[in-house]
Amino acid sequence: MSSVLIKNVNIVNEGEIVNSDVYIEDGIFKEIAANISAKSPDVQVFDGENKYLLPGVIDDQVHFREPGLTHKATIETESRAAVAGGITSFIEMPNTNPQTTTIEKLEEKFEIAAKSSYANYSFMFGGTNDNLEEIKKLDASKVAALKLFLGSSTGNMLVDNPEVLEKIFASTNLLIAVHCEDEDTIKKNTAIYKERYGEDIPINFHPIIRSEEACYLSSSKAVALAKKTGARLHVFHLSTAKELELFDNTIPLKEKKITAEVCIHHLWFSDKDYHDKGTFIKWNPAVKGEKDRDALFQALLDDKLDVIATDHAPHTREEKENVYTKAPSGGPLVQHALPAMLEFYHEGKIELEKIVEKMCHNPAILFEIEKRGYIKEGYFADAVLVDLNAPWTVNNENIAYKCGWSPFEGTTFKSRITHTFVNGSLVYKNFKFYDIKNAARLTFNRPA
């Protein structure tokens, strides 16, 4: 493995920005100091002047569709798009086909990623109403978390038996990550609008069907159950202002037992965007009103929300163009998440240090990921070089997703990811991909 020296770069790390040199050797940050000289003629030297070096982003919630749904995406195609977006590590969800609800199926996904992924990887194990014994067999040092769908499930992954749910919460030391929407509320709301409009319900009713009530009812139950059982709970993709009252910002993240995240689309879009974007911004939970969006952003700044993720969930253009009841929810986001957050930086809404905290440091803390998420000597050399003043426009020629579209098509971002390093190897440079798969399985600082 070649060594890398990045000269005169602005390092964004642990709440400060420091100009320095960074030397990488054998995939590790070896030295961070001023005026480092190349150790040998084989060292790759990069000029970091006027650029910013961020730790590689860790995305804790993606759907890469493999196995079984590979007409939409694969681990290879979406991890490739991820590194173009500065995401060097991902945690993928269990609702593939077959679902990741047995240890055998979990290990099969690890085998696929080991051969094909451009980014570091781990997977969540899926809970169901009838696999508690399999959950108990999991080695907490080898799996990212347990994922429970408390609404909007696929297949048999909706965990709707209260007795089983409490047993799961009480029986595992793993972090439990949950999708919270109340299924009964959504079914009743859907029936009302189907009676009125048939299958072609106007998309602007999506946040009314998948309502604030549906979200709060489910998330509040999950939080109450975590408090009752002492379980470690992480609530995915908050979408309403009301839910924020369930979360705390008075203690450090390491001490929190109950945490929450927000996704890029809930920070960027609002219900006003349905008119132009239609079902291409149909997500579960739904994009809601401007007041919700603004409250979520403020909660991010105030540390009630701990992590920024993507919930990257690609579907084909043809699938998304269906009528409301047939169009699947979800969209591709890994390539454009960091550029979108950097756009907020340019607008004065968030500091670079806060972006790094929420996208790099906090996922590493939350999931107890070993030696990633920071630019530190001795840590794995996952890093992203960013030019804050290199505008580019999202279009068909530079979209890397297998599905070939993005909800950001036509958007011009002021900041460009110029280089992405995974375990010290340059895997992406200015819209060019290198066929280097130096990714590793994520490891965790936890007892088995």
From TrEMBL:
Membrane spanning residue stretches: none
Metal-binding in keyword set: yes
Keyword Hydrolase set for record: yes
Key words, A-Z: Hydrolase, Metal-binding
Gene Ontology molecular functions: allantoinase activity; metal ion binding
Domain Amidohydrolase-related residues, every copy: 52-427
Names of required cofactors: Zn(2+)
Source domain of life: Bacteria
BP terms from Gene Ontology: purine nucleobase catabolic process
Protein family according to the UniProt entry: Belongs to the metallo-dependent hydrolases superfamily. DHOase family. Class I DHOase subfamily.
Function of the protein: Catalyzes the reversible cyclization of carbamoyl aspartate to dihydroorotate.
Name assigned to this protein: Dihydroorotase
Annotated organism of origin: Aquimarina intermedia
